[in-house]
Amino acid sequence: MRGRPRAAAVPFQAIRTDRDLLYARIRRALRGDWATVDDAASDLYLAVIEGRLEIEQIEAVANQYRNRVIADYASAFGPISLNKAIPGTEDLMMIDTLRDERSLDWLEEMGATVW
Fold first, then answer.
1. Do the beta carbons of residue 58 and residue 41 sit within 8 Å?
2. pLDDT of 52-91, one tens digit each?
3. For residues 10 and 46, what is the distance between their CA atoms, to the nearest angstrom?
4. CA 86 to each of CA 30, 73, 75, 78, 81: distance values in angstroms, whole numbers, following the listed order
5. 3-state DSSP: the chain helix, strand, coil percent, rounded to 5?
6. pLDDT at position 112, please?
7. Taking Cα atoms as reference points, which of 61, 11, 71 lies closest to residue 41?
8. In this structure, what are the phi and psi dihedrals at residue 81, rounded to the nearest 5 degrees?
């Protein structure tokens, strides 16, 4: 046998959500379309694991977590005001980034001041 000996292979074990009691409890507490509550379930699971939330509090706060995720999603893809200031700028607004292809700015750049 040449070279270094190989390490024993660790068998792959998929996460079995049907056997995870914490995950199952969170899923029951969130009720509804799974596509809308997936992020909320992850946030709840993490909060419990990190110790920010007790297991007994899951049912009491589940709707808050779901509503927060839905609000975050809606605000990211919903309508926004063109008069909203762009973060990180002094006074630049969203409307300032739009270009009007029909404007006559090119005339002003050439020195035209009277129409």
1. no
2. 999 999 999 999 998 888 888 777 677 778 888 888 888 8
3. 26
4. 35, 19, 15, 16, 11
5. 50, 0, 45
6. 72
7. 61
8. -80, 140
Q: Return d(Cα 59, Cα 28) in angstroms, integer.
A: 9
Other Cβ atoms closer than 10 A to 48: 18
Q: Report pLDDT for 3.
A: 62
- Polymer length in residues for the chain: 115
The type of residue at 75 is S
* CA torsion through residues 45, 49, 52, 56, sign: positive
Average pLDDT over residues 15-23: 72
Distance CA 67, CA 39 (A): 11
Q: Rg of the chain over CA atoms, in angstroms?
A: 27
Question: Which tokens go with 68?
Answer: 């927060």
